[in-house]
Write a structure and sequence with these properties.
transmembrane helix; 5-stranded antiparallel β-sheet; single chain; 5-stranded mixed β-sheet; about 290 residues; alpha+beta; Immunoglobulin-like
Length: about 290
């Protein structure tokens, strides 16, 4: 290396070496399977006008201002005069109706509730009563004087009532109760009465309509056909209040539809004659 080489700049090419030519830009690498695309041109920079304020931002324009002139509206003349209005007066207030006292209101509500309850309970009861009366009308009463024998539907009936003592062990053996012994005698007047052998129903009834059942404890009537003219008897007992022991009357309801000679297959067959007898609801009352 010469002395001149020591004075030469390290990055300068040596003397006599031709200067390097600028290299053309490298072609884009094409990958297989893709088409070559044109290079994207650079975006133009937006122009900046000399009269546009960039920074700081301009103050906002008020909403009640306008940049356009408002055209003048031609005058339509003065407004017509308004008629005088009467002075305003407040409406008269109607005083509210006086409320009923709380006690009266509670009383009315209580009466209404009681009426509603009575109607609610009485309507079904009345309906059942009408249904009962339609199937069992009022009784047809046949009166028998004291000691008298009464003949009805082919059978003669007679009764007697006398006081008696309470059965042993009875709970109703108290001074305010009266036990009564009832003797009922029956006899058939003809062959039809001889086959009407059903047991009657016995009740005691006072003048106020109160009723007490009498239980038959002895029955000497045969189950087969009775003899015409022969007397058969029932013995029954009942307990009533002592105050009405001497005035209660025997109510005997005879069974005039059952015949002991009726075949079994015809016992429940409808019979118009028997239906008419059932509707009569016959009762024999023996006076005392």
């Amino acid at each position: 290396m010469s002395t001149n080489d020591s004075e030469r700049d390290w990055f300068a090419p040596p003397a006599g070496q031709p200067p390097q030519r600028p290299q053309p830009p490298a072609a884009p690498i094409r990958r297989p399977g893709r088409r070559a695309t044109a290079p994207t041109p650079p975006r133009p920079r937006p122009g900046i006008h000399a009269d546009q304020q960039v920074w700081p931002p301009a103050p906002a324009e008020p909403t009640d201002s306008s940049t356009q002139p408002i055209p003048a509206i031609p005058s339509a003349g003065p407004l017509p005069p308004r008629p005088p209005q009467p002075p305003w007066t407040p409406p008269e207030e109607t005083p509210p109706a006086a409320a009923p006292p709380p006690r009266s209101r509670r009383l009315l509500l209580g009466v209404g509730a009681v009426v509603a309850l009575v109607v609610a309970l009485g309507a079904p009861t009345a309906d059942r009563y009408l249904f009962y009366k339609s199937g069992r009308p009022s009784p047809t009463v046949h009166l028998a004087e004291p000691g008298q024998t009464l003949t009805y539907e082919h059978v003669s009936w007679k009764s007697a009532i006398e006081p008696t003592t309470a059965p042993p062990g009875s709970r109703h053996n108290t001074p305010d109760k009266q036990w009564l012994k009832i003797t009922v005698t029956r006899s058939a007047t003809d062959d039809t009465g001889a086959v009407l052998t059903a047991k009657p129903e016995l009740k005691l009834k006072d003048a106020g309509g109160r009723t007490w059942m009498a239980e038959i404890y002895e029955d000497n009537t045969p189950t087969e056909k009775h003899e015409v003219g022969k007397e058969y008897s029932y013995l029954a007992m009942a307990v009533v209040p002592a105050a009405v022991g001497k005035e209660v009357q025997l109510n005997l309801e005879p069974n005039i539809t059952y015949r002991m000679d009726t075949p079994t297959e015809k016992l429940f067959a409808p019979d118009e004659e028997n239906l008419d007898k059932d509707r009569r609801n016959d009762v024999i009352v023996f006076r005392r």
